[in-house]
Amino acid sequence: MPGPFDCFIIFAEMRTGSNFLESNLDQFPGLRCYGEAFNPYFMVTPQTDDLFGVTLAMRDADPMLLLERMKAETDGLPGFRFFHDHDPRVFNAMIDDPRCAKVVLTRNPVEAYVSRRIAMATDQWQLNDTGDARKEKARFIPDEFEKQFYRAKSFQAKIKDRLQRTGQTAFYVDYDDAQNLDVINGLARFLGEDSRIKRFASTFKKQNPEPLSDKVQQFELLASTVARIDIFDLHRLPNFEPGRPPVMKSYLASDELRLVFLPIAGGPTKPVTDWMETAGPLLGDFSQKSLRRWKRQNKAHRSFTVLRHPVTRLHSVFCDLLAVDKDGSDMDLKQALRQEHDIALPDTANASWTPEDHRQAFLQFIAFVARSLSGQSAIGVDPRWATQVATIKGFARFTLPDHILREDQLPTGIAAVLAEVGASHAPPLPAAVPDAPYALEQIYSGEIESAVRKAYQRDYVMFGFQPWQRRRQP
Predict the structure, then answer these.
(1) Distance CA 467, CA 386 (A)
(2) CA dist., res. 116 & res. 429, Å (int)
(3) Which of 51, 192, 285, 391 lies at a CB distance of 3.0 to 4.6 Å from 3, suitable for a disulfide?
C-alpha cells in the first residue's frame, strides 16, 4: 500500500542546520534527499552537471521535469531543501500538493545570522572534522540582520498561510530539536518511514559551539538591535504572525520639511534624499511604532513616493548591475544572468562596450525580467524590478502615501506637497545624473519601449505611462 506522500520538501534558510538534517534523513533506507535541487544558481551542488539526466538549463526551462524524474527514479521517498530565493514555480506547485510532505526547519535568527557571518569570514561553510575548525568573530551589521530577519519571517508566514488555506500541516523542527535523535526518528515516521536510526550521521559537525557573546565583535550592538526588534518575536515558531513589514526600514523623514519619503526600489531615491538632506538631517530606521510617534510629533506632515517611468527605472537597475559590484551582493545574480539567461553582462568595466552592446544586453535583461515577473524564471522577483503597483500595495500594509508623485513632474509635485505643510522655502531639486556607461537617450528604441511595456503592462495601465520618448524630461 503506498504511503501518504510522493515526495517531501524541507523549507529552510542558510545556516539553519539543513545539511545536518539532510545527512541524517539520508540514513533511513526509504528516504533520499537531493539538497538544493532548485537553487536558481546551481543544482544540488555547484559541481553537479545534471540530475536524473536533467541539466541546469533543462531544469530552469521546466522544473517539473526534474521533480517528476526524481519521483519516478528514486528508490524510496525523494526530497529536497528549499530556501526563500529558490525557484518560485516549484514553491507554487508543491505548497498546495497534499502528496508532498512539508518539513519546516527553523533556527534562532540571531544564531543563524552570526553563523553565516562567521562562515563568510572563514570561508568554511561546513565542518567534517573538529580539528579543522577555523575561528573568527562575526561582524554584526544591524541593517543586514534586520533585512534577513524580516525576509525569513515573511517566507515562513507565506508557508503557514498556504498550508492553512489548503488544510495541510507541516512537521516543524527547530535547529536544537534536530540534535535530538528521537525527533529525527519522529520526523521519519511522519514521512512514512518505519525504520529508526541509532546514531547521528558523522558527516557534519557543529562549527561554533561557543556562547553568542564570544562569537560577535560588537555584542552590545547586537543586543540593542535585537531588543529594538522585539526579542520575543525572534523565538517564535513560524506559525505565529510575522513582524512588521521590512519596507518600514527604508522610509526617511525630515523634521525641517515635515515630509516622509517612501522610496520605490529602482526609483530616484538618491536625488530625492539628497534634496531632503539639504534642509537638515533625515531620520530613518523606522518601525511602525516609531513612525507613528514621529507623525504625532509632526502633525502637519505629508508622506510621498515617486513613480519612475518603467523604461527609465529598468535601465537604471540594469546600469547598476553593470557597475563594479564592490560588496559582492549581486555576484550570484550576475553570474546566473550571464550563464543561465545568456545576458551579455561584462565581467568588469569593458572599454570596448559599445552602445549597441549595451542596447542588446538591455533587451536581454528586459526579457529576463518579464519571465521573472510572470513566474517563469528560477530567480524570483527582486524589489528592484518588482512592479510599482505591487510596491505601493505593499506600502498599504501600514499606510498609503499621501501623494504619489512622478519623476518627470517632480519640481511641481514637490512644490504642491510643501505648500500643504506650509514650508516657506525649500532647496532646489538636484539635476538628474545620467546612467552610465550610456544614458538612456543613447540606446533607446521602439523595441525597448515595446518590451518594457509588455513586462510592465500593469504599471502602464494603472499609472497611465506614455511611451518614454513622448514624456517631459525633468
Answers:
(1) 19
(2) 41
(3) 192
Q: Alpha helix (H) ranges present in 323-467?
A: 331-339, 355-373, 388-395, 410-421, 440-443, 446-455, 457-463
What residue has cell string 524630461?
473
Least confident of 27-31, 175-179, 246-250: 246-250
pLDDT of residue 299: 86
For residues 369 and 381, the answer to whether their CB atoms sit within 8 Å is no
pLDDT of residue 25: 96
Q: Return the pLDDT at 214.
A: 76
- Which residues make beta-bridge pairs with 306? 405
Tens of pLDDT, residues 312-358: 999 999 999 988 776 677 888 998 999 889 998 887 666 688 999 99
Range with lowest mean pLDDT among 68-77, 95-104, 138-147: 138-147
Backbone angles phi, psi at 51, to 5 degrees: -135, 120
How many Cα atoms sit within 13 Å of 243 on the Cβ side?
A: 27
Quickly tell me which residue has 523595441 as its cell.
447
Instruction: Kindly report the number of other CB atoms within 10 A of residue 304's CB atom.
Output: 19
- The answer to whether the CB of 286 falls within 8 A of the CB of 248 is yes
Cα gap 279→252, rounded to integer Å: 13
Q: Which residues pair with 100 in a beta bridge?
A: 7
Pairing assessment for the beta strands 77-82 and 252-254 based on DSSP bridges: unpaired
Buried b (16+ CB within 10 A) or exposed e, 313-329: bbbbbbbebbeeeeeee
What phi and psi, each to the nearest 5 degrees, are found at residue 180? -105, 120
| Residue 344 cell numbers, joined | 551579455
Residue 261's nearest CA partner among 286, 233, 229 is 286
- Number of Cβ within a 10 Å radius of residue 265: 16
Q: What is the DSSP string of 361-386?
A: HHHHHHHHHHHHHTT-SSS---TTTS
Predicted confidence (pLDDT) per residue in 178-227, tens digit: 888 999 999 999 999 999 999 988 765 555 666 677 788 877 788 777 77
**SS3 for 100?**
strand
